[in-house]
Hints:
Strand content of chain B: 15-25%
Oligomer: heterodimer
Largest sheet of chain A: none
CATH superfamily of the domain at 93-268 in chain A: MetI-like
Helix content of chain B: 25-40%
Helix content of chain A: over 70%
Amino acid sequence: MLRFIGRRVWDGGLTLAALVTLTFFVMRLAPGGPFSKSRKISPEILANIQKTYHLDEPVWMQFGRYVKGLVTFDLGPSTRFRDYTVGDMISAGLPWSVTIGIWAIIVATLIGVALGVAGAMRRNSAADYVAGIVGVVGVAVPIFVIGPLLQSVFALRLGWVPVGGIGAGWRALVLPILVLALPNVAYISRLTRSSMIETLRENYVRTARAKGVGAARMVRRHVLKGTLLPVIAYLGPATAAIITGSILIETIFALPGIGRHFVDAALNRDYPLVMGITLLYGALLIVLNIATDLIRAWIDPRLRNGR
Amino acid sequence: MRRHLAITLGGLMLAASLALSGPATADDTLDRGIGSEWSSLDPQVNFDAAAGWIQSDAYEGLVNFDGSGKVIPGAAESWDISADGKTYVFHLRDGLKWSNGDPLVAQDFVNAVLRTLNPDTASEKGYYFYSVIKVKGAEALANGETKDATTLGMTAPDDRTVVIEMETPNPHMLDLMGAFQLAPLHSPSFEAMGAGVFIDPAHVVSNGAYIIKEVVPQSHVLLERNPNYWDAANVKIPFVKYHVTEDVNTELKRYQAGEIDITYDIPVNQIAALQESIPDQVSISPSTEVTYYSFNLKRPPLDNIDVRRALSLAIDRETLEGKIVKGGAVPTYSFAGGFDPDYHGPQIAEAGMSQAEREAAAKDLFAKAGYGPDNPLKLNIVTTVAEDRIRLAQGVALMWKKVLGVDAQVDSMERKAWLDAFYAGGWDVFADDLVGDFAGPETFLAYMRPSADSGYNWVKPEYDAAMDAAAEEADPAKRNEKLAVAEKILLDDYIFAPIAIEPVRHLVSPHVKGWATSPAGYNNSQFLSLE
């Protein structure tokens, strides 16, 4: 088991190193630079600003400098937000993204699994159809449509929650979490349903049933564990995707998360900030994937030995 | 074990959620939208107009500006101007204080300029002092040729006097003495904490009507009334909150929900409907930004003035702004006019014609140059990806096609790439824009000097000479006349087609009183009140 973890961590490290290198050099291929904004500045002054941020050095030297900084956990200064370092920006934004991300995944899992189980237990019943409709809507209607729609109804018309910002406390997070959860509710409920229908056909379930185990007890003790395997496999990457993919949500609901920095940083050629967030996203994805594998191995003994 | 984990996790989430709950925005707070996040709250570094609003609330320069953009006394209660217009002596008010109670002295203003010019500050704003107004010694300090602070032509002979000596007279110098360009520097806190002090509410020291109370990156900046401000008795609103409002549609909804009192912008496709439903709350007025389409003089046949002139005349500017872009921009036939009511500059020669006459003239000129529907001219227009800019470029392309048979291709790119593309030269027509440093013609005309910007490849010693002549003139009226002579030389060469003066757009809640508009866009919260 330790060897398994060690290998995954080693692979993850290599992946990150490749990611850093690739991002660093590809980013420099884009035309424009962090300070190509005002044409009024004299070349001497511009050169001086470039020098302050080491942008006058050859790219390989800048790369060396960056890697050296990484070793000491120094992600460098932000060129777009001149008051902050990249570390500052990430530590200010990440808690927001993580908070709405984790809540969204919890909400999505609870509702999704419940709908999926209900659908599988009573196929073609009303509950199954509701789950189906939620599934289609959640997957098909994009966030930038459903978000403003919910804002219009619950914030503007009913006034239950604010439109955006963080001034109203927890109420400000209700809509973003729901909107972020919705596509995952859809996916998880479909996943649970099909997985459960399959599990219900397994021999060990039939055996249990033949032995007279009650329906509720059977689901709890025998079926659910088998059913949830694919759901858990999905949750790891989904959590990473939700935390890193909240750009639209954060923009629509005016939340100070990390996702918005990413786009802004890229558009403003804030090289250190783009690097920092890329690295963070990469690391997040790798860690959550490893965690998923570990949980799956814990649930399913077959995965523990062998591969 | 499992249960423990679940409880810990749940507890963490609950704590995070509880930490969020604060009081809802109260009525004693003015909520203002600010667009994308401020790039810096460091007054000597910040170069953003929107962050400039925060800066103008938190700091006060030697002068201040009322809502209509008029220069009024700020930290200086009066000033004397020498007969040659090159030396300004500012007299500070008696008993001025910083927000922490320290006395505010003349040297604090000198230190601010020294820090702005210091290469170590890496500020883009030094050019205000060595280029827009030529303060003696400023350029050498900015270039790092000297580090000797005594060489600067800005001094504080005593605690209440600031003297500024310039190489040439400049009647607009007062426009650059406000908080945006010249916020004073509280040296003790800056030297103790470095530039980080400006975002640290516990330690930042300012001298404006408000002090910085809370800074949350990507969310908001909260300001509170400064009791040590000399005119604190007349500051009516206790708190001002600047919200990051990146998404213009969300901002509109927040305004409609009462979360924002003054928006940063209005979604272009909503302007007409809002002007219908809440006309009193829609505030659209010209800014100091002019859009113009520059022609690449290095690329034939655009080196032929007849071709450039025809292209300029074929643009129906009224239709373009009124029916196609519909963003509230004002069509213009000049480059530097329309910002200062005292400047009576020229327009392009055909400004008085009807559009039909212009189009007829355009066809003749184009035929003379050997082009027309039978021999169509092919060219590209390089523009930014902003929606209204793309629509503008497509509208121009359409008009060129219709009138002159031109095949124009619109190449849109993000702003940074667009800026670099200008000097790379891979364009026939560059969808250009320029934001003036103040609401007057000179900031625009100085920028077009062939000696100031090589990107246009425009060789015109007469223009430089005319601008030099104007720069020596101290009398404002005479200076404007000389600037008009220069602008005529510029317009007569048709090196660009002027398009429009861009607007600023706000929604202003009926609760807000005292709102006024001006091209310079100064709207200090200290002059507003809430009802």
